């Protein structure tokens, strides 16, 4: 072990218990990667703090020894956010996994960053509440905040940034700040909440997160609508949005991905372009919404629409949707997942998906298209052989095509996965001179570049 | 005229037409104040640019001559945001007042900063769309973006920050950036959109604003519910929120303010604590929501609840609510308006309003309490004699009491009016060390302190 690491570990031993510090190769390896195709890289040491004070002291020790700091939730990210390419200290938040406070009347909850979204929803259920942001993985709230995650319900309930009320953050100098408050809105000072949500560990470490939560809807109906073409499915989405129907979920799954759904669920749904929908509301209103939707999809040659109000069956359906990336990963062992993540104005969505589908067909790689199409966000999932550099190049060229298409039509290179290492190359193209503003903020808050180097910027 | 001003005007004359530059005393006086009790201060010169290029050149001329820049919409703000205490150049955006693009399918609209909210809604109506953020005044979209305004519909549709998709901003060096894109969501880069919304002209000048807009609801019902006590009215609000009824508006008006409403509307509503409510939705769902609400308010000894579906009468009702501040101003000529603006977690709202009411009664000044109570945001309006320094002191002490109460209970010093000069003194108390982060961002983006000095920081 290098002297600098040894000295840092000695300092860490002064403030942490022995089982909170690890240089064990297996542990280092677990913290060297995420769930994507991005190359792995080992941290020098992994620490497991239990409170904000420990996080602050770890950051100060890192700064003293000029070691980089990488915050780590569960490693379920998809653009290499947690991979420590410059090594240093990885802070794993798995011991900070408590739901600290549930305030039913205020519809807010305070959690530690290591709480996972399923753990949170299990706790909230007792109070008739739920938290709607649901990326595919059972990610940590800290990670979801860092990447500004969204998911299937954002079309109705918003993304992480819309649902974070307050953050406790440890900054590069070890100081601890709060970025918001517990009120529903505020016009006081600059909006640090929104700045830190989506900052991907480049500005500081979150130690407490206050979230907005929601009452479990009185009535829920799910629907599965099968179409002849992907284009008709997407056009139906646009029409439903135009009609002002407040859908809670609106997911597209293409033919190859329906094959995966059937395998994963042991179901025999038609393997055609399919919309998964969900409606939340009071009984009477919901009935009217559902009837109106049924009318609209018929205009787009919907083959079949099937409604589901049974809770267990509904959950099974959404589990299948959530596990689609894993279904691909399991079906193509030995290959790794590359997933595009653009988001466009909804008027551009049909064209974008058509373009992606044609390009995907020329790749001759296993994969499919799914998406949170109510938001204009879709993913092309491709299973790549990371040993084959030509294949990687081909897949990356495809990803670039998708991004170019989106950026030229007013969209973004990432709707929900974040920049990490994978989308850093598109930041100048997307943001132009605004990237300089982002860089100057990074420099003002983290002048030595302590936090998560190489990500975003 | 000072030499420095003369030289600046000479430079301005090179890039603007003569009628776009004014040092006329009446024009200067119009740009020396807002609608509040805050002391006025004259700019040296007022300019009226017509495009982003002119704004950029004005900013560069100001920088060259070391003159401060203050952006100005309509001057309807309430905390002195547009008052140029350090003089310099005021940029009036009234000639940049075009709705540039309406994209119905995407539910977005691009406007220049000088467009007013009523002007925008008149344009949008033709497309069956509306923009929900509605501060009392017919403010400009630029000003509403600068203060992160909200209003009566934020409980359902969010605040300015939730509804701004993209901003074109002229920075202190004259460069022009875009802070977002036209997609419904993004996880790309740091969130500059949210940072610039609510920055009160301290970080740059907005030259284009892209907003999220909404379809006009299929059905709308308004309601006016009268209560015996203000406490019961507030408790009813909490209960309606708890029940998960998606109210679109939820406004409290106290007894003295109902007197103003009656005078202004020539109506004879009961002069008791009153909730103004509104429901948006499909016909069936709305009926069920309304029936449920009626049941709930009865539990809180509601004296009378009256529903209104007629469009004209409904608009009249909301006009009365919107014009309340003006009603007070007209009723007490010679006095000026001071208005508190705290926002608290909703569980703290009843206590806060009770506390405010008791404190207000001891002041013996004309005034009342109104509020966007669905958000936990309320205002005490007080009419003060600005010639009487003792009275001003008394009113300011009252404002401080209200703020202290809010901050000690997890709230904020300003829910929607912004900081300006009036709430700058509470920033350290509210934000603690986070204020240093805000200051370092200000310094990074505007190192010479060109923009709107003395505001927020």
Automatic annotation (TrEMBL), chains A, B:
Enzyme Commission no: 1.1.2.4
Matching InterPro entries: FAD-bd_oxidored_4_C, FAD-bd_PCMH, FAD-bd_PCMH-like_sf, FAD-bd_PCMH_sub2, FAD-linked_Oxase-like_C, Oxid_FAD_bind_N, Vanillyl_alc_oxidase_C-sub2
Cofactor(s) recorded in Swiss-Prot or TrEMBL: FAD
SUPFAM superfamilies hit by this protein: FAD-binding/transporter-associated domain-like, FAD-linked oxidases, C-terminal domain
Annotated keywords: FAD, Flavoprotein, Oxidoreductase, Transit peptide
Transmembrane regions listed in the UniProt entry: none
Protein's UniProt keywords contain Transit peptide: yes
Enzyme type, top EC level: oxidoreductase
The FAD-binding PCMH-type domain, residue ranges: 39-216
GO molecular function: D-lactate dehydrogenase (cytochrome) activity; D-lactate dehydrogenase (NAD+) activity; FAD binding
Biological processes per GO annotation: lactate catabolic process
Pfam families: FAD-oxidase_C, FAD_binding_4
Family the UniProt entry places it in: Belongs to the FAD-binding oxidoreductase/transferase type 4 family.
UniProt-recorded name of the protein: D-lactate dehydrogenase (cytochrome)
Organism this protein belongs to: Oceanobacillus halophilus
């Amino acid at each position: 072990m290098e002297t600098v690491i040894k000295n840092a570990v000695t300092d860490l031993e002064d403030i942490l218990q022995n089982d909170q510090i690890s240089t064990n190769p297996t542990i280092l390896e677990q913290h060297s990667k995420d769930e994507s195709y991005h190359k792995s890289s080992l941290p020098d040491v992994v620490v497991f703090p239990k409170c904000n004070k420990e996080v602050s002291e770890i950051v100060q020790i890192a700064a003293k020894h000029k070691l980089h700091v990488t915050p780590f939730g569960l490693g379920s990210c998809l653009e290499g956010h947690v991979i420590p390419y410059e090594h240093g200290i990885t802070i794993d938040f798995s011991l900070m996994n408590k739901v600290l406070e549930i305030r039913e009347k205020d519809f807010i909850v305070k959690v530690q960053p290591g709480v996972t979204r399923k753990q949170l929803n299990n706790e909230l259920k007792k109070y008739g509440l739920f938290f709607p942001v649901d990326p595919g993985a059972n990610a940590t709230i800290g990670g979801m905040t860092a990447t500004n995650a969204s998911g299937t319900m954002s079309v109705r309930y918003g993304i992480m940034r819309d649902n974070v009320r307050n953050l406790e953050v440890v900054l590069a100098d070890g100081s601890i700040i709060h970025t918001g408050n517990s009120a529903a809105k505020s016009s006081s000072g600059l909006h640090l909440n929104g700045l830190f949500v989506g900052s991907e560990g480049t500005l500081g470490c979150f130690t407490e997160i206050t979230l907005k939560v929601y009452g479990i809807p009185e009535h829920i109906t799910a629907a599965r609508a099968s179409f002849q073409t992907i284009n008709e499915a997407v056009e139906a989405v646009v029409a439903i949005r135009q009609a002002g129907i407040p859908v809670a979920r609106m997911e597209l799954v293409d033919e190859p991905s329906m094959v995966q759904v059937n395998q994963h669920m042991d179901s025999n749904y038609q393997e055609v372009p399919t919309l998964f929908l969900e409606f939340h509301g009071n009984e009477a209103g919901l009935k009217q919404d559902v009837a109106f939707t049924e009318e609209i999809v018929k205009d787009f040659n919907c083959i079949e629409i099937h409604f589901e109000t049974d809770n267990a069956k509904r959950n099974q359906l959404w589990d299948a949707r959530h596990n689609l990336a894993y279904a691909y990963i399991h079906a193509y062992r030995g290959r790794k997942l590359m997933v595009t993540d653009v988001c466009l104005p909804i008027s551009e969505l049909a064209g974008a998906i058509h373009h992606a589908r044609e390009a995907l067909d020329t790749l001759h790689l296993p994969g499919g298209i799914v998406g949170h199409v109510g938001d204009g966000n879709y993913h092309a999932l491709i299973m790549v052989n990371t040993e084959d550099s030509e294949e990687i190049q081909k897949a990356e060229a495809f990803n670039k095509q998708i991004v170019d298409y989106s950026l030229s039509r007013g969209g973004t290179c990432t709707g929900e996965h974040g920049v990490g290492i994978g989308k850093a190359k598109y930041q100048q193209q997307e943001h132009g001179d605004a990237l300089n503003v982002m860089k100057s903020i990074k420099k003002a808050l983290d002048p030595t570049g302590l936090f998560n180097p190489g990500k975003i910027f």
